[in-house]
Amino acid sequence: MLGGLFLLMLILIELNGGIGIGTKFGTVVLEKVSPGGTYNLRQLRGVPYIVLNNGNGEIEVEIQVIPPNDPKEGYEPILDPSWLRIEPNRLKLKPGEEFPCTLILSIPDDKNLIGKHYHAYIRAQIVGEDLYGAAVVNNFFFSIGTEGPEAVKKAKAKKLLKELNFDVDPNMLFLKVKAGKVVNVFKELKKSFKILNKGRRKLKLRIKSVKNTMRYPLLEGYEFTPDINFIWAKPEIVKVKGYRIIDAKLFLKIPEEYSGKKFMFIIAVSPYEKEFSLVQLFVRVYVEVE
Predict the structure, then answer these.
(1) Can you give the three-state secondary structure of the chain, one letter per residue?
(2) What is the set of domains in the chain, with CATH numbers?
(3) In the chain, at which end, N or C, are there fewer CB atoms within 10 A of the end residue's CB?
């Protein structure tokens, strides 16, 4: 089933000398168009591409489909501008006159195009000596055999989110370290917290010291670390196979000037994928510095 979004807007360009051009069209997003299919936007959605002369002199307009040099994220430039036709693509307009053109999208019958997302510019440009260059550009997006990139991304994120099933244990560690030296917590103190992957899917996780944005209360005698970089995980990025448990490897180095202090650190464990970065589990690490 063909889906999409049509945002109608009026765009006007006016030059010195009372010469002007505009369009009533805006942005079109078509989804689930089929290989081999032909789509007349005017017939399907009642959406004409209207060009208007908002100046005080007659103009001649040429309309072209152009692959963008910098397409919108998730899209690639239209492979062949001939896929999108404008009828007519050249016209003359008197002052104040407007003309509804027809846009026809024709997709080659090639199943390899399924899953592709394309971006095209539709440019209406005044032609004529000393006038060539004044133009109005509209965006046209279409996805073949699938929803648009944003919808696909959200669906993927929703599916992956259901598969994120991990935990940390314990969620608090108590350490005593000497100031001024690097301490391998796992090797030297025989302490760590475990990351448990309770699901089937292999997880890629980030372990990182963070600020106390969760506002965990401090235990008596402790203060939050003056520098979250006093503690770190190595490796910071870990992979945990389904139904497996690993130990997080923490390292500490607290400057000698903080000898006698007691600090709290917050370690966040979160999926590496950017879209899930807000899914976090926290471990509080209480450190007594000798």
Answers:
(1) CCEEEEECCEEEEECCCCCEEEEECCEEEEEEECCCCEEEHHHHHCCCEEEECCCCCCEEEEEEEECCCCCCCCCEECCCHHHEEEECCEEEECCCCEEEEEEEEECCCCHHHCCCEEEEEEEEEEECCCCCCCEEEEEEEEEECCCCHHHHHHHHHHHHHHHCCEEEECCEEEEEECCCCCEEHHHHCCCCCEEEECCCCCEEEEEEEECCCCCCCCCCCCEECCCHHHEEECCCEEEECCCCEEECCEEECCCHHHCCCEEEEEEEEEECCHHHCCCCEEEEEEEEEC
(2) 3-151 (2.60.40.10), 163-289 (2.60.40.10)
(3) N
Place of tokens 């608090």: 172
The dihedrals phi and psi of 136, each to the nearest 5 degrees, come to -120, 130
Q: In this structure, what token pair is assigned to residue 193?
A: 């917290």
pLDDT of the chain along its 290 residues, tens only? 455 444 444 444 444 456 778 888 878 889 999 999 999 988 877 778 999 988 888 889 999 999 999 999 899 999 999 999 999 999 999 998 999 999 999 999 999 999 999 999 999 988 875 655 678 889 999 999 998 888 877 777 677 767 788 999 999 999 999 999 999 998 888 898 999 999 888 999 999 999 987 788 899 999 999 999 999 999 999 999 999 999 999 999 999 999 999 999 999 999 988 767 667 889 999 999 99
* Separation CA 280–CA 271 (nearest Å): 8
Rg (C-alpha) for the chain, rounded Å, is 30
49 is written with which tokens? Answer: 């591409």
**Sheet strands side by side (includes 245-247):** 166-169, 194-197, 245-247
